[in-house]
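Bumping with the actual sequence this time:
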Amino acid sequence: MLEGMPVSAGYATAKILKMDDATLHISNALITDVDQELNKYEDAIRKSINQLETLKATYAKKFNDDMLSLFDAHIAMTNDIEVVGKVKELIIKKSYNLAYAITLVSEEYIAMFNQIDDEYLKARAVDLKDVTHRLISNVLHIKIIDLAKINEPVILATKELTPTQATQLNPTYIKGFVSEVGSNTSHSAIIAKLLNIPAVFGVKDLLKHINQDDLAILDGIKGKLYINPTKKQLDTYKDVMQSYQAHQETLKIYEHMPLQTKDKQTFPLLANLSSDRDLEYIKSFALDGVGLFRTELLFLEHLQMPTYDEQYKVYHQILESFKDQDVTIRTLDIGGDKPLSYVNHPKEENPALGQRGIRFSFLHQDIFETQIKALLTANKYGNLKIMFPMISTIDEFLKAKSIVEFIEQSLIKNKIEVKPYQLGIMIETPSSALMANEFAKVCDFFSIGTNDLVQYTFAIDRLNQNLSSLYKPLHPAILKLIKMTVDAAHKHQVTVSVCGEMASDACSSIILLGLGVDQLSISPSSSLEIKSCVSKHTLKQLKEIAQHALSLDNQESVKTYIKNKTNF
């Protein structure tokens, strides 16, 4: 039995289709005919773009516009002015061959993405790998695999499934897929969820442990892959699959229902969003607005600073898509751990404690002011909530607020209408939680970022696997900080949402609502499970569960208690 990270829920039983990635052997040999190499580059770009446009047209009926925009993004990456310029420079100045030059430039940007601690943004490195693989394959005249031609039931096994490969998956035949590499927020994962194909990523040495045509059971709930299972295992999973399908049918009744308790107390359920390309996917879940739009990807996808117009277009599209609902947009949460290639970042011993979030914005105020201007002018419906990340002191918030107000006055002087908006902060440091009462006097709203709050409370690097046992979001210490924040906010009629991973967990959602949190901002795919779980309890019961959890002394006790009280 092999284990990995469950990415798309469900179960599958089928033979393995083992897809060994074609290794691209890149020579570093120097060239003598620069013009010929540059012409080859133009041909490879043209061929790659034609292939991507053909794929987009082929799958136009299968995916919505936002998913199809993946192909547009890959076309833009293929033809990016800065990337093309760097590749040509290596060919002209250093006489590198085309494939080697493309590889070097690509590796530079992939390394930048891989340094990011945000899993969604880190996953964009896969898009760049996909684009690079296509370009080099065309340079070297290597045939690109067409997964659409698979015509028998299989579980696809590969080192890494690229986004364009994922779009070719046909659920009729691809019963599941499993890979050695991948993340829960990659485009491949999003497509798997959209197509309801069970998927497990991060299976160590997967390709070494399997053979072509092995019979397998894929468990997309627990992240397990059984190779050549016994009859007993097959019979067991047959029953499990039937129960799962029945449960999925029962969850469908919550699709168009609000998040509400057994006694009909209703709470807004909002979406976490990282890209305007995911809008249609998000809207299909009928949520109550956007509780967190991360603006980092907009900056990281560009190889030069996104202009005011480019930012305005994205913000306006999101605000218009949810024009009757609130949209919370977080200002640039960038820093040493999420470097921008076009900004000079000082080397820091500990980036998580360095110039990130609002600190970066103050250090690069021109970037901050352009973003604020784009946000205020894009706010045509008065539904904008601007949220500042990594706020630790009142002075930081007041400084950020004064910059926003200065931009607002400048716009008004230039006869540009500024619709009403709200200003709030991420509560993600212990200092902001401890000072919540003072922050509530000057903020319009709070959003608790539990990912960083846990990290900073327990003084751990949450990306350090050796310290993963100390990452405890349900520890009473965290619950007490959340309760303290909520109580302080409510004294001043300030609303509190939670937008970290904790909010997307059904069990944790019970505790959060019981602690008095007003809204949950989640990964949309978690919405039905959360609605189902919360609907089985009255608000009084949720409060009693949360109150008892506060009296316990470790996370394990809290988890056991919740499980016993909820049967979840």
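The tokens above came from a reply further down the thread. The CA atoms of residues 348 and 354 lie 7 Å apart.
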